[in-house]
Structure formats: C-alpha cells, structure tokens
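Entry:
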Amino acid sequence: QVQFVESGGGLVQPGGSLRLSCAVSGIRFSIYDMGWYRQAPGKQRELVATIRSGGSTNYPDSVKGRFTISRDNAKNTVYLQMDSLKPEDTAVYYCNVYPSSPVYWGQGTQVTVSS
C-alpha cells in the first residue's frame, strides 16, 4: 500500500521556521523525483520545491532562498525546511512525486503563519 504521510506543520509567527517531513512507503522511493506542494484557501495547489533522485533541487521565486528541500533515501523521507516564513506561506502542505500523481496525495500538514 502506497502512503505519503506529512507531518511537522503548526502555527508560527512571521519570520519563524518550521521543518516538514514526509514519510513515504510502498514505492521505490530512491528512484523518484519528489516535490512539496501547497494549497492555500481558495487557491490552486502549487509546487514549492522539487528534489531529483540525484539530489538537485529547484524552487519557484516565491520561496527561493527561504525554503530548502532534502531527502533521506535510507529513511524514505523527504523534508522541507522553511525559514523566514511569511503570512502568505499559510497553506496545507503536501508531498508527492514530481510530477505529481493523483493517487499519491496524502492528508497534508497545515502551516499557519500569523502573529
């Protein structure tokens, strides 16, 4: 059974940091490119970070320099370190393969940036 389980979200003040984790099971994790996505209320889901199977990373301008994606193939886990958080980063965050697969969406983890 394939599972993507996100954790690590919460309420944080502007300028703060959070580290999200996504534990993956049921697929050969190490060969997949992975991504973190987010969906804010009333908006479409958007890609915020990718990491290739070989380790190269990419970010949109909205999070570049603030977010860092990493992976641990031994633990079948992908991480998202988020620093200098802004209120506009508030969203539910999901991990998935990249490009995303509709069958792999998990429950996500809520990140709220507010004072």
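Strands lie at 3-7, 10-12, 18-25, 34-39, 46-51, 57-58, 67-72, 77-82, 91-97, 109-113.
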